[in-house]
Amino acid sequence: AEMAAARPGGGENRLVSLPLSRIRVIMKSSPEVSSINQDALFLTAKATELFVQYLAAYSYKHGRGKEKNALTYTDLSHTAEECETFQFLADILPKKILASKYLKMLEKEKRDGEVREDDDEGEEEEDEGEA
């Protein structure tokens, strides 16, 4: 009965909160994907939803946010940095830093880069331009 609700017709909204059309677009953006089975789409959406819930619950439980009863970005970025399970999210959820501190880091990288070969620095600049 549950799988029947996953078929087109709007019934899937009861079982999954994320928009299936958007998830289909994201899945199709991969060059290896030619067609997407409806069940695979639904299961991907549900797995994503459960993962986000798990990340939020874990971050809330282990959070260092000063506000009570609130999940903060800092809680999420701390989880991404500290918890091995979520470390793959570290680039997506970076720790917030002051602009002045970031500029100092850039200056330090630039100085360190000058010590290294010029070729390495040139490649990094190209990569940043593509992103």
The CATH class of the domain at 36-115 is Mainly Alpha
Provide the CATH superfamily of the domain at 36-115. Answer: Histone, subunit A
- Helical segment count: 6
Architecture (CATH level 2) name of the domain at 36-115: Orthogonal Bundle
- Count the E strands: 0
CATH topology of the domain at 36-115, anyone?
A: Histone, subunit A
How confident is the prediction overall: mean pLDDT? 79
- Structural class, by secondary structure, is mainly alpha
| Order of secondary-structure elements | HHHHHH
In short:
The chain is mostly helical. It has helices at residues 2-5, 20-28, 38-61, 73-82, 99-115, 118-130. The protein is flat, with a radius of gyration of 21 Å.
What would your notes on this structure say?
The protein has helices at residues 2-5, 20-28, 38-61, 73-82, 99-115, 118-130. It contains 6 helices and no strands. It is 59% helix and 0% strand. With 131 residues, the chain is an all-alpha fold.
